[in-house]
Amino acid sequence: MKIKKLFQKTRFGIFSLFGVISLSTSALCIYTVDTHLSEEYENNSKNIAKTIADSSVDILLNRDLAALQSLIDQFVEIQSIKYIYITDESGEFLAHTFVPGIPEVIRTDDPFKTEAIERNLPGMGDFVEVGSPILAGIAGTVHVGMDTGLIALKIQRAIGRQVYLICIILVIGFFAAIWLVNLAANPLGDLLAYAVSLAGGENRASDDKLLSRDDEVGHLAHLLLYVSKGEKNEQPDT
Amino acid sequence: MTQTSSGVTDTEIILGVSAAFSGPSRGLGIELYRGASAYFTHINQQGGISGRKVVLKTYDDGYQPDPSVKNTLQLMLEDEVFLLFGYVGTPTVTRVLPMLKKFQDRNIFLFFPFTGAQPQREPPYGDFAFNLRASYRQETAGLVDNFVRINRKRIAVFYQADAYGRSGWAGVRSALKRHGEQIVGEATYRRGEKFTGSMRKQVEILKASDPEAVICIGAYAACAAFARDAVDLGLRVPIANLSFVGSENLLKLLTEGQENSDPYTQLLVNSQVVPSYEETSTPAVQEYREMMQQYAPQPPEELVKEDYTPFAQSFVSLEGFLNAKLMVEILRRVGDNPQRSQLEDAVFSVRDFDLGIGEQVSFGPDRRQGLQRVYYTVVENGRFVTLDNWEDRFGIK
Question: What average pLDDT score do residues B367-381 get?
Fold first, then answer.
């Protein structure tokens, strides 16, 4: 039937439209979540580094390195913070959380660096490291390393949940659209069959199902019946 | 039973203890408790202090900071003990100290923790603790001075990655600085490491620095594993341990099941903060040996869930014994109606007190550590004995 073909195109159009909406929304969501969460984690690390830097001034001035170690041990228990180290004003390592030792790449790097840098530590993984100066740098620098693998996993989970929700909305929306299209397509199909039967001379004058409808289809059915009757009356007797 | 003051009834004085009775360092908590328990049992059998028995309210923290904080809250707020006594470890004690400051209006003091770290000896928390033993700073300084004196200046450090390890590391660093030297290599391990674990990576890191001596700041299981792997990998230099290590437990791990354990033990040198329990001519040692034999103290049954065979004598239990002996003296000085607020004055009244080990004990507002002396021991015929001559034993030939 031509009607079905017409609505097949509509269904395809709806599916395509939903697909485009879902893909673009997912892409935007991935970008937004990735950017925001990455910034969030980086900011958290900066805040932690700054908190340690602020609270370690007295401890450093008192040269109580056990208390300093105790302080950073508490922060390294926070998930995704994988290492912390503190260097003094000469670059000497005063406290750290590395086991079995300070990685060579960190030992040989600039100890006063505070901007976010990406690091690969052999045997440990990939990290983003941020730093914060203690007493404007004259007492040393705090460095905090975040596990990017763990952060990526968290971001992937957050994105996954959003994309999952979008996909569910897509499927529900698609089936809802098909149901709505069918709601319009089925009476039109019936009307077409009715028109064909009238044209074929069949007596379906009392097709209540169509004629009793109080909508455009019902009105069209009445019109078709009327036209059909008029044509019959105009035919000469044979 | 009438409660006359917090932690004191007509018949009891209750002291709160949180220590390691489980986990790889349980030997430290158990031995410290046993030594103290021997002396308290003796005092209680003699009628107690002004008719009151000394009772230990004890909890297990497994040598972990969070449980020790929880136990301390329980002891201070729920059990309302008279004072805190015989805690074990730096990472645990450093977390507990701020709580003492927070509740300073209650006058709760920590007596004789089994740690030589600085936080309970210095501001801002030094006013809330009293120490008997010498500090890690003194122990590490003594070890460094002796190594440097025999020309072993390239010193590396193997340490626990926490406040205890850092405290010892800082002591070694500071002592070396005085000699114009610095730490040549360092390696760490995580607290709770077992003897069955591998320390090969740590040995390789230190071996690369070509040290002439290694100072270990750790507990017995990890330090024994390090000594074993160091010997196996050919790192043939003196390996020093601090008093906290638990010398007998260390030795037991290194010798058990070995046909010839000499390679693993002949390069060990352990610093101690009490004299050797083999020195029977020392009055307090004699007293300790008699009471350990007479009372055969056991750790609290409900806390010890893992296998542990106690030692007849050990440096740790001797320290616990001396802690208890001085504690009893202080409680006697508090008087017949003990109040927490009287404790500090009672401690400060201790001047040139003879504990029976040949070193007088004194306390004062600026002196919150009773003993200063450090002893050095090496393994001979399967036991730790006093080291007489560093040059002969460890001098570079």
Answer: 96
